Amino acid sequence: MRLLPILLFVAVAVVLLLPLLRRMRVRVRSAPRALPDELVKDPVCQTYIVKSRAVRRTDAGQVRYFCSEQCARLDAGG
Ligand SMILES: [Zn+2]
Q: Can you list the alpha helix ranges (DSSP code H) found in 1-78?
């Protein structure tokens, strides 16, 4: 019988993988979806980025969004 070790291996693999799969499902379910993916324009490089992931800077009461810290710094520096 050559099948027995293979079957045992598959059984062990399934037992080990099931908790991992369950954890992944829980993560997907509990992932926050509060903010809608609104697009904003980076005034420095003219790139559109997702608002929830953009770098936010408040400048004289006006909120500006940048694609990266680098662009935020460039804008602040003039
Ligand atoms: Zn940019």
A: 3-30, 69-77
- Rounded to an integer, what is the distance from CA 76 to the centroid of its chain? 27
The CA 40 to ligand 1 mean position distance, Å, reads 11
Ligand 1 centroid–CA 46 distance in Å is 7
Which of residues 2 and 57 earns the better pLDDT score? 57
pTM: 0.51
Distances (CA, A) of 12 to 3, 9, 31, 36, 53: 14, 5, 30, 42, 40
Residue (of 58, 57, 51, 59) closest to 72 by Cα position: 57
pLDDT digits (tens, 9 = 90+) for 5-21: 999 999 999 999 988 88
